[in-house]
Every structure is written in C-alpha cells, then in structure tokens.
Amino acid sequence: MRRFYLLAAIFLSLAAASGIYLQLVAGGMPEPEQLQLDQSVIALLLIAWLILDPELPLEQRPTFDHAFLLMISFPFLALYHQFLTRRWRGVATVAGFVALVFAPYLAIVAAIARLYS
Description:
Order of helices and strands: HHHHHH
Radius of gyration: 16 Å
Largest sheet: none
C-alpha cells in the first residue's frame, strides 16, 4: 500500500503539471482552487507514504495527530524524520517530494517562460 501512495502522488503531480502547462499554452488560466487542491492531495499522499516508513521503530511510529503535525510542518519535520532514518538519501527523498508538491507551480513558470521567449 505504501508504494501505491508514492505512485499516486507522482502520477497526480505529473498530470496536474502537464494539464496546467497545456492549459496555459492554449491561452487558458488555471483555477487557484484547483492548484491548492492538487497541492494538498499530493502532500497528503506523500505524508501517508512517510508515516508508513518501515524503518521507523514501532515505538516511534507516528500516530494520527503526529501525521497531522507532519502535514502542517511539511517539509521540515519530514526532512528530520528522513534524515534520522536514511541520512542523506532521506534528504534527497524529501527534496524530490518538495519538487512533486510544487510541480504544478513549476509548470506555470515553464509555460510563462515559453510564452514570453
């Protein structure tokens, strides 16, 4: 199930980014609410992936309230958890997660750069 959360987050991030990019190139404008919803769902899927980490000791496994704290403080607390369990590979993982969460906004920047170049 943990793999599903990660794959779903990647798919949703890429689908949202490509849809926004195509919409902007075609002359449309993305809805701010849709951008915020996409970002929230992607972050929620990534948080679910993080709290199901098998390398976290069972006594330190996050509870629901800790997962909510992780979601609010994303990516800082996630960076801390991943650094403790996986060291620098965990830091690279969180950097990839940040790129996934902000991919729709990066698509906006890419579309604007394409339109004005």
